[in-house]
Design a protein that fits this description.
- This protein is about 40% helix and about 20% strand.
- The mean pLDDT is about 90.
- A 5-stranded parallel beta sheet has the order 2-1-3-4-5, with helices on both faces.
- By secondary structure, it is an alpha/beta fold.
- It starts with a strand and ends in a 7-residue tail after the last helix.
- α2 packs parallel to α3.
Length: about 120
Amino acid sequence: MKILVVDDSSTMRRIISNILKSSGYEDIVEAGDGIEGLNQLKANPDIDMVLTDWNMPNMNGLDFLAKIRETTPSSTLPVIMVTTEAEKANVVAAIKAGANNYIVKPFTPEIVKTKLEPFLKPA
């Protein structure tokens, strides 16, 4: 299973990647913003899941999600928002835009695993 992690913070990308690797998922692709994320999706059509931050330069996570959903039906590619935006209105906006789930920072590895579990294929 190939997973795309999109976040402008290299530290956060590393944290999420390490959580995924500790769960047995080694095929991880990274991007620093939504534009890079779209380029990675084009270069890696076999990506099975996307974890994206909301607040990023160049193209934020919500715009990135909208671009994904323009070309990919919501049930085909799971997209999980990972963000500090915890207000209910933001969660609703992300879900309406096509996010499959939502993780609020700060988080524990257990929270990440629980939120991703419905979408993960066995490692």
